[in-house]
């Protein structure tokens, strides 16, 4: 039996993940804004659904916080602005 690829499974269930994968694994802030608008979701709703504050998401999206580590990095990865680190993908596969 073969195990399903976690990244492929996530892309099938999450439209944003699928969109990110079609754009090479990372998208721009403008692409993120356009995608959530096309889904009829506000940035604030997207943030709250994932346990982030709208302010934190806005700051990462606008480049006021670089998203290099910690919570801001997690937000940038969730938005698709940065690719997920390899170690996170390995933990998902285990």
Automatic annotation (TrEMBL):
- Which InterPro entries did the record assign? BcepMu_gp16 (IPR026365)
What is the protein name given in its UniProt record? Answer: DNA-binding protein
